[in-house]
């Protein structure tokens, strides 16, 4: 069980049902029989956040087949003042893709818009529709001998439109950046139903405001992303992985610096994993095992990548890096993956971290980011603050330490009562987030704001920044119809 929302979502005022009924009839006509459903069983998966923390209601789920149908649906909604919840794969971690509870919204699903429109291998770009499954995008790039590096645990079900709308992170941010850095152009349906065609595959375009950045990470509150031009990269020819125990968190960061410098900055993965994570995964996930012969407090999953078709010595460099780190006392023990099967065994320990916590019991989760240099100080200060609130709490921390993103999760005391633990939710959240903020960090590294962190945003975001955000929202969506109750 994970933490529920600390406050209920805001409710929209009730609209005139006859106006909405007419609009919904027109929407059904616009998208055809295959483009909508009001069947409760078919609608239910669209109404519940995948973690089960948020459940809303909607008048209809609309599934347009193309951008023109999306635009027509939005135009009808704009005329009738009918609020919309855009939805792709519905794998949001913050309640950002489900409607509110008042039942006034329609859900506008992009699932049928799943075409790969084109791939330009020479330009290293791919144009895809918002409903494309992330894994399909990855596989299509590989078929063209190219690489799309966005990678996260939900890649078999999440869709690229949602990835871009939430500025998804994942495991490869250290080398390639967040989702917004992997986009060259967008196609967006605006709140009034106009289509903005910004599908340019240009790396240089200095003709005014970078409009696509308004919609990347906006969580569907400013418009609906219907297609995107994605950046591609040379296909990796070999990935060299190791699982190592480090002396402490400071040693892990020294190892990161050493590996980046000595490898020619070919580090693709640098995941920090604490011992409690390993223990829970081995306890609850069949087929997992400790890679090392004894236990340690902190571990790192480190990978170097080579894009050369010839052996350019990256594997040997990894061995040298580890050897030097062991001589310097940074690394206490290590094992190199001798096969892809062993590499995937390393990853199962990392990728099942969240699932094992869910099985274990209640936990209060934090998706924070801080400067890499501040990780050791934050780690200690935040834990001290948590223990003052719940002395028997357990710290189950892991994350993408290479880019400063930690999943700093607090598990209930062993044998504890989850509901009693959750009574301290707000206090623990504020403690961890206050420490992250004091270290120059963010309360949301890669999961977004949604409903979960909407009310907290005003505590940490500068007033001027919030004012600018509201000004942009008012200018583009003055009636507040796009994904109401999210972010702001």
Protein described:
With 488 residues, the protein is an alpha+beta fold. Among the domains are: 116-234, Uridine Diphospho-n-acetylenolpyruvylglucosamine Reductase, domain 3, CATH 3.30.465.10; 238-280 and 293-344, Alpha-Beta Plaits (2-Layer Sandwich), CATH 3.30.70; 361-445, Alpha-Beta Plaits, CATH 3.30.70.2740. 35% of the residues lie in helices and 20% in strands. The chain contains 17 helices and 19 strands. The protein has helices spanning 17-31, 40-47, 67-80, 134-143, 160-165, 173-176, 212-215, 249-262, 275-284, 314-327, 340-351, 353-360, 375-389, 418-422, 425-438, 457-460, 463-476, and strands at 36-37, 61-62, 84-87, 106-109, 116-120, 125-129, 146-147, 183-189, 195-198, 224-231, 233-234, 238-246, 267-274, 298-306, 331-336, 363-364, 367-369, 394-400, 405-411. The strands form four sheets. Strands 12, 13, 14, 15, 16, 17, 18 and 19 form an eight-stranded antiparallel β-sheet that branches. β8 (183-189) and β9 (195-198) form a beta hairpin. α8 (249-262) runs antiparallel to α10 (314-327) and α9 crosses α12. The protein is globular, with a radius of gyration of 23 Å.
